Amino acid sequence: MTNWRVVDIIKTSTDFLEKKGVPDARLDAEILLGNVLKKNRLELYLFFDRPMGKDEMDLYREHIRRRGTREPLQHIVGETGFMNLVLKTTSAALIPRQETEILIEKTLELNIKPGARILDIGTGSGCIAIALAQSLKEAKLLGIDVSKEALALAKENATLSETQVVFQEIDILTSLPNTEERFDIVVSNPPYIAPDEKDQLQAEVLQFDPEVALFDESDGLSFYRRFAEILPDLLIPGGHFLFEFGGSPQEKPVLNIFMEKGFHDLEIIQDYNGDPRIISGKYIP
Predict the structure, then answer these.
(1) Shortest CA distance to 116 belongs to which of 171, 187, 176?
(2) Which of 87, 140, 204, 209 has its CA 20 to 30 A from that of 96?
(3) Residue 78 domain-assigned (yes or no)
(4) How far apart are CA 217 and CA 190, in angstroms?
């Protein structure tokens, strides 16, 4: 098999992944092969007749085997793109997703003063805090998470991205950040999946993402109730918040939580598919 060409191995691995139920099997086969050969997908098309060496084939077979178990592509290659960043990905935290980029974009549209203090609750891989820190050079970013493993990954990503973010281990459901100053902006992509929704998840998510980052042990709304309770202790008067939530089924319940607590300028922001995805608002005493 060491004489197999690139074009042959892509077809064979695509067939294998399709039988395993992997979405976008050919795309994944090409990305994984590009990772092995250190070439992008366009370059692969220029080298379709290139024979595969034994070491390359051994590594590629292992990549395809792992993808066939539904291990996420991003875990296999060890990184993913988010905004204009390349972030390390492991099973310690959720893989940064495109929908969360909207939260970054909407935050950056705010009138953010130099030196603004921003809190990222449930920072995970650090993607939100790091992306904001990269765009807001003078801002002071604090990312908190309950998971030591996630915080270690976030710190590594901040170092790799050459951004200044402070991280703390905090369980926001029971504690508040260790700081005396309030924040100008609070952002979060919290756990919002109820346990009875597990069977609706893709294998890649259910088997490989950390449960603590996915599931609210109640009805999917615990974190929003907690946020509505503690935002007056976290935000300066006039401070903003932006929180991701679980789409249409949660839109009205989440909106009602913050309406009942009297927050101002509440807005539901849609994702790239037109689904409700983010709630934003202001704290005005």
Answers:
(1) 187
(2) 140
(3) no
(4) 12
